[in-house]
Amino acid sequence: MSEPSERPEAEDEREEEAYALGVDLVAGVVDALAEGDDAGVRALVAPLHAADFADLLEQIDSDDRAGLIRAVGAELDAEALSELDESVLDEVLSYVDPAVLAAAVKELNSDDVVYLVEDLEDEHKARLLGALDDDERVIVEQSLAYPEYSAGRMMQRELVKAPPFWTVGDMIDAMRAAEELPDPFYEVIVVDPGMKPIGTIPVGRIMGTTRPVPLAEIMSEDFRAIPATQKSEDVAYAFSQYHLVSAPVVDEDGRLVGVITIDDAVEAMDEEAEEDILRLGGVGDESISDRVRDIARSRFPWLAVNLVTAVLASMVIDVFEDVIAAYVALAVLMPIVASMGGNAGTQTLTVAVRALATRDLTASNMWRVVLRETLVGLMNGLGFAILIGIIGYLWFSDAMLGFVLAITMIGNLLVAALAGILVPITLDRFGADPALASGTFVTTVTDIVGFFLFLGLGGALLL
Amino acid sequence: MSEPSERPEAEDEREEEAYALGVDLVAGVVDALAEGDDAGVRALVAPLHAADFADLLEQIDSDDRAGLIRAVGAELDAEALSELDESVLDEVLSYVDPAVLAAAVKELNSDDVVYLVEDLEDEHKARLLGALDDDERVIVEQSLAYPEYSAGRMMQRELVKAPPFWTVGDMIDAMRAAEELPDPFYEVIVVDPGMKPIGTIPVGRIMGTTRPVPLAEIMSEDFRAIPATQKSEDVAYAFSQYHLVSAPVVDEDGRLVGVITIDDAVEAMDEEAEEDILRLGGVGDESISDRVRDIARSRFPWLAVNLVTAVLASMVIDVFEDVIAAYVALAVLMPIVASMGGNAGTQTLTVAVRALATRDLTASNMWRVVLRETLVGLMNGLGFAILIGIIGYLWFSDAMLGFVLAITMIGNLLVAALAGILVPITLDRFGADPALASGTFVTTVTDIVGFFLFLGLGGALLL
User: Fold this and answer.
1) Ranges of CATH 3.10.580.10 domains, chain B
2) pLDDT by residue (tens digit) across A414-450?
3) Which of the listed CATH numbers 1.10.10.10, 1.10.3720.10, 3.40.50.10540, 1.10.357.20 matches domain A292-462?
4) B161-280: CATH architecture
5) What is the ipTM of this complex?
6) Cα distance from B140 to chain A (closest Cα, Å)?
7) CATH of domain B17-145
8) Chain B contacts of A383, Cβ < 8 Å?
9) Chain B contact for A80 (CB, 8 A cutoff)
């Protein structure tokens, strides 16, 4: 491999797992559940962070989930529910006592309630919304009115706003008087009388300023207001690119409706990265805790598309049946052609998909990148042509066979480079996700062109 | 595809690109540079955020980079330098006037200076360190003493600390008196006389508390202190899992040495995700702005490993040369066997690598996941066995050929599932990165087993 160990991986297993849920703890909880020792279960999970408790729920099996929820009872932390993967959320909620759920949900920020509610089956959804106070329910329903994967769904309604004529002293007094401050809370949003945000002030800056100074003097006016309809991936990009921790969200009239904080953006970033990785691997939006039938069903269509393209490649070979019958070494060497083309294409494709996602590949440098990939394909094509030509010659003692392999390799790696860069760019141009199915397209191209070149040249030069 | 459009992609190109550097702007800058219109260049780039200016530098070619740096002159924002990709950083720094660089660097936080310095060639490194004040240079050199990709390299030294007996009033007075507060700044770290952190207080909480309250009463004691030697991927995991925005970093004696903020963690998360995607695609740590020769050279070894494994698969076929010569349809259908096995294996592998990275796949649920993947392989194997059996029968009018294909498909998808899950788990167990070269291992296994089954069965049943 080219950079085997620039990053020292693992070695220290203990440190590696420093933050993860311990294997021993999971085993301990499962044992305590089996023994019906509810007090023991509670003692084990009490010190866990909500996120780790959610991981615990995901990692144990269904029976244990029900037992764990029952054992924890009223001590259930609603945060843990909002950390659960969708695949187990519905199931877990069905185990929670309605009264416990109602009490727990009231402690959540509106964005977490929205997350809990949005994917629920109707029965659970009505029950959960029913547990909220009227005004809180209205807030959650307003968020739900925005499309899935939009800023409106990500935002929380809990925020601190102030008019520009307030002084730092007014602000501090107001905050001290507030019953409860939002958590997390990083910025005060300064709004005009029409509720339009006109500036933001990091909390630290307020603390470093003396009481008589008006907020208008210390607010930043070059903040970014995020439209509530903006897609979550764009929100995530803005947070990452501009190192934001918090940003006001506005409706179509530019009025402040909520705030998105960095933890929501980090979640959206994770989802984006996950989606790209999974799609490049030919997998949909699946989770390790999904059921067997769901996983099999979600992977089937991708394999079916692949079957169609594999049949296409086979049809190319079928055309050259006579050539193969007369010269079986060609059949023996076919996997090398397919494999090298497929891998080279995947390399280029992977880099292109990633660069499109990070917006490092744009219309500005597109043609330069295409040219560069073509040259890379040509260089490595030449290198492997020599290697593989020698292998073919030595293995079958036939110089012409080596020559055919060599020429095929150059053509195949060139085509792999072109397909690897042009397929994702084209998909992106037409508004499709470049990670989606690109791999199948690219390997179809390299298979077909590779086999055609190899068997065509072989038929012409070897028979 | 299974979920073609759960997320509405693109359609609105304008909004999609809302935050990215505009194509027109890049073209405008390049034109202005070509015309030697330095004032025009400065006017165009003045409104750009440092991160966008860095992207601009990455997207234009070498000559334009030199011109742009020269045109901007003393107005260069040092932040932009710290946003640059490593692949162009050295080059860009060579264009910057030493006096401009010295002035610019002084405005950076210590973590950004460390980033600039760590990958520099020695000549540039000495020049940059020389531009710093003595005490700042010492700080940067201390950070550089920690291993690459460690918390010590990620942390900034600028932080706000206080003793526990201070009141909120003392704290506010101290901050108002401070010449400059760190930016970003989210938490006050409470330290004991030995400089060990004993609590943290979000700035917002200080603002919501009255002056006479001692800090000890409002500090959180269950914060996470990060050892300076901890690996950056573990730091990123902790920030993401526990929704941290800031965390104190301690040396081996537990003394406070710095603070890591969420923007550093987000960068580490991005790098982790990028590394996984690229390694799964058989690519090293390359960037779209690397030079052709470097890209070709870094991809060559991965392709070379693949060549070796492809030759192994060919050797399996070679064993059955007589079978193929007698029944050429087997050669025609070989790509279907290889392709289906490879794709099914890649699906499982991708999910496993991702689940290992997010720590959803652990020793606690490992065997359950292996069993589940095996069942998925069996189910889809049966499904495709029927499909492909029919295809083989109809295409070559040979029921026995269809039967051979069907049995091969079941065996191949089972093996694909097992290899796809066991290879990454095994690599992870031995402390290797499960994304690294897993793909090659898995497809080697599916190719070899698939060809062996197909041609072996074919030889036994068809001749």
Assistant:
1) 161-280
2) 999 999 999 999 999 998 889 887 888 899 999 999 9
3) 1.10.357.20
4) Roll (3.10)
5) 0.88
6) 21
7) 1.25.60.10
8) 296, 300
9) no
Residues of A in Cβ contact (< 8 Å) with B26:
362, 364
> Digits of tens for pLDDT over chain B (463 positions)?
344 434 344 334 434 445 668 888 999 999 999 999 999 999 999 989 999 999 999 989 889 999 999 999 888 888 899 999 888 888 898 898 888 888 888 888 889 999 888 877 787 788 788 888 888 889 899 999 999 999 999 999 999 999 999 999 999 999 999 988 888 889 999 999 999 999 999 999 998 999 999 999 999 998 989 999 999 999 999 999 999 999 999 999 999 999 999 999 999 998 888 888 999 998 988 887 788 999 999 999 999 999 999 999 999 999 999 999 999 999 999 999 999 999 999 999 999 999 998 888 988 899 999 999 999 999 999 999 999 999 999 999 999 999 999 999 999 999 999 999 999 999 999 988 898 878 888 999 999 999 999 999 999 999 8
Residue B212, preceding peptide bond in cis (omega within 30° of 0): no
Contact criterion met (CB < 8 Å) for A3 and B369:
no
**Which of A277, A321, A367, A391 to substitute to test the interface with B, most B CBs within 10 Å?**
A277
Interface touch A8/B243, C-beta < 8 Å: no
Chain A within 8 Å of B19 (Cβ-Cβ)? yes
Cβ-nearest to B23 among A9, A362, A379: A362
Question: How near does any CA of chain A get to the CA of B206, in Å?
Answer: 8
Positions of CATH 1.10.357.20 in chain B: 292-462
Q: What is the mean pLDDT of residues A139-148?
A: 91
Contact of B394 with chain A, judged by CB distance below 8 Å, is answered with: no
Domain A18-145 class?
A: mainly alpha
Please name the member of A148, A183, A207 whose beta carbon is closest to the beta carbon of B203: A207
Residue of B23, B59, B88 to mutate for A, most A C-beta atoms under 10 A: B59
As given in the structure block, the two tokens for residue A391 are 């292998």
| CATH 1.25.60.10, chain B: domain bounds | 17-145
